[in-house]
Amino acid sequence: MTTPPVQQFSASVARYAAFIAMWLLVWWAAMLMEYQPYISLWYPPAGLSLAAFTLMGYRALLPVLTATLIAGFWMYLQLGSTLPFTTQLINTLILAAGHTLAYGLGGLYFRHTISKWDIQQLPQRILYFLVITLLTTLLAALFGSTAFVAIGAMSWTDANAAWLNWWVGDLAGAMVLTPFFILLLSQLWDYDVSWLRPNVQSFLQERAHTRLWSHKITLMLVLVATIITIDYLYSHAAIAYFIFFISLPQMWIVFTERLETTLLSLAIVSVFIASWFGFYGVDNHALTYQFAMCVIAANAYFGLSVPSLLSHNRKLHHQTRIDALTHVATRSHFIQTAEEKLRGQRSTDFPLSLIVFDIDEFKTINDTFGHLIGDQALIMAAQSVRTHIRQCDLIARFGGDEFLILLPEQNLAQARATAERLRESLPAIPTNEGMVQIKASFGIVEIAPGESINEALQRADQALLKAKRKGRDQVVSS
Ligand SMILES: Nc1nc2c(ncn2[C@@H]2O[C@H](COP(=O)(O)OP(=O)(O)OP(=O)(O)O)[C@@H](O)[C@H]2O)c(=O)[nH]1
């Protein structure tokens, strides 16, 4: 059912109005964190604007521009400006356009790159995000300080001195808060942010430390308060640098909590750093704290990619060990295990035997009943063998319809008996022409002293060939 246009329009208006209110709230909250008039460690609206353009695309233009215009007028009101209304309007427009243009360019470009991402490319995504944030905030600082000169609120000399601090403040706001706001906006308004989510669920489920989030965040806040207070009391640069150690408990959260919790704790800690710093009202070491906020956030983002890389790695590792069709071991895993067993066997003198078996007339099964039934025959044969061998034995798919079995502590006679048992227990597969019995030929060897796995495999293959030549469905030893 499609929504009527009037309803769609009012939903969009409500969404834009709510966004503007949120932007102004964030902007107002940022003012509470100022450590000197109009100066705070960071500029949180930068993160919200970048998040809005990333999620909404060009549709964010109107609400961001409107919010920045209202903020501009609000400032004039607070300052009790006596400038004529038209001058205030033009000045505010210039300032708002600078902010909107910079974050619009950055957000739209970031949005454009997202469509090209692969789910496993988290580290590249993070790098993209950091570079785009660096450039966007630089642009915002340059546009902003130029706009201030243009409206006569700053001289070129002042702008020259101010743009760097402006940049770092915007950078801290955007770097720490953009992912948090992206997640928040997507939860409020149902934007698709699957690209933001690393595939870490299985990894997190194995972690034991989840649900202690409140303890972890409390620890971080106590550390922040202690460091800033000691820095305020002793004002030594070395003490301020300790704020970088907040990365450690933050990493603990990254590795043990969900994405939402990680981004929320980053936001809380940064708000706490800025507010605590603002509370003391000093500007000693401001840059240290600003850069610490950026570095802690960037570290946390890269940390987020570790669990996803680990789980991807685990999947690949599984793929190299387990055959995708029959779920028995792969050839490479078999060879590796067999070599390890052979080394162990040489020190203990226990026998070690090998079986190679190949399904008889498998091509005919494929050609008569189709490849899906052929696949089914491979799966059933492998599973049947698996249930008839011991826990310590290993079955692997060598390729096609050929399988290998490793039998530790079995001599040739015992291996022969095992092979006979396996041959007799092979199942029948259901086809549209009734049940068809799977048959196979077996070649067996006992690995001789000094013989390598490859040499033993070649001997077993020769025995298998003999079994085929002798009419199939039988066991031949070598
Ligand atoms: N369905 C299916 N067929 C496969 C797969 N891998 C290989 N094959 C087919 O398996 C057949 C192997 O046939 P062969 O072992 O050469 O010959 P055969 O018909 O079994 O005859 P003998 O071994 O001499 O008894 C080929 O037709 C391959 O195309 C697979 O994963 N699934």
Automatic annotation (TrEMBL):
One of its GO terms (molecular function) is diguanylate cyclase activity. Gene3D superfamilies: 3.30.70.270. Its EC number is 2.7.7.65. Pfam families: GGDEF (PF00990), MASE1 (PF05231). It comes from the Bacteria. It is an enzyme of class 2 (transferase). It catalyses: 2 GTP = 3',3'-c-di-GMP + 2 diphosphate. One of its GO terms (cellular component) is plasma membrane. The keyword NAD does not apply. It is a multi-pass membrane protein. InterPro entries: Diguanylate_Cyclase, GGDEF_dom, MASE1, Nucleotide_cyclase, Rev_trsase/Diguanyl_cyclase. The chain crosses the membrane at residues 60-77, 89-110, 126-151, 171-191, 212-230, 236-255, 262-282, 288-310. Its cofactor is Mg(2+). Residues 350-478 form the GGDEF domain. The keyword Membrane applies. It is found in: Cell membrane. This is diguanylate cyclase. It comes from Pseudidiomarina insulisalsae. The lineage of its organism: Bacteria, Pseudomonadati, Pseudomonadota, Gammaproteobacteria, Alteromonadales.
